[in-house]
Write a structure and sequence with these properties.
Layout: H1 3-7, H2 22-42, H3 49-56, H4 60-66, H5 70-83, H6 96-111, H7 114-126, H8 131-158, H9 167-188, H10 196-214
Length: about 220
């Protein structure tokens, strides 16, 4: 059976059988933890079920009782990473500069982290075989973060705190200015991730330039 036909049998939200006991929950979590490490390090295709079982302990019978197919385990791994990320709250009543700088630093810490870079390589490598997993990653990661920013800018516009025509366009402009150049380097060059200090300075600079262009003066 091909990986594509196997993936079509379940939705991206399916994460395997739910253990009834605490021991079973711990065993399943060990499998997901082992698979997360191996998939991110070696890739999906280069990681065998035997290797996952060896690292996590237990047996193949136990493995298949929770994850009848390896692609179900891949879904669980990706879902576990993107679903457990908290987004910063953007409150329209608070200082705009402080809120946006916090948002920028949070996004950059995630995007330029070692885990995210490995996850992105994994998603890109397998997107032709598992387009639903790539779509899940996009919806729960980049799209969710973008939607939060758009909603925030819409509220700032409604309150008359930003002089913008389109919240959607303004959010795209803002994120592009913040990430495009650095993100391109990470994708195509063997560039070291930016330091915490560099991310802070970039966040301050980008937010400052954005507010110079769009902030309404009282």
């Amino acid at each position: 059976m091909s990986r594509q036909s196997a993936s079509s049998k379940g939705s991206a939200s399916r994460a395997g059988a739910v253990p009834a006991s605490k021991r079973g929950q711990k065993r399943k979590a060990s499998i997901v933890d082992a698979a997360t490490m191996l998939f991110l390090k070696n890739g999906y295709s280069e990681t065998s079920v035997n290797t996952i079982v060896t690292l996590s302990g237990g047996s193949k019978a136990t493995f298949y009782s929770y994850f009848p197919t390896k692609d179900m385990l891949l879904r669980a791994v990706v879902d576990g990473i993107v679903s457990n990320r908290e987004e910063p709250e953007l409150q329209a009543s608070e200082d705009i500069r402080v809120a946006l700088v916090t948002y920028c630093e949070h996004r950059m810490r995630i995007i330029f982290s070692r885990q995210h870079r490995a996850l992105l390589r994994l998603i890109i490598a397998e997107r032709e075989h598992f387009p639903d997993i790539a779509a899940m990653y996009y919806k729960r990661g980049p799209q969710r973060s973008h939607d939060i920013l758009v909603e925030y800018m819409q509220e700032l516009k409604r309150r008359g705190r930003l002089d913008i025509e389109s919240a959607e366009e303004s959010a795209e402009f803002f994120i592009g200015m913040l990430l495009h150049q650095w993100y391109s380097r990470q994708l195509f060059l063997r560039s070291a991730p930016p330091t915490t200090k560099a991310m802070r300075e970039r966040a301050d600079h980008v937010v400052g330039r954005f507010l110079e262009a769009f902030r309404k003066l009282s």
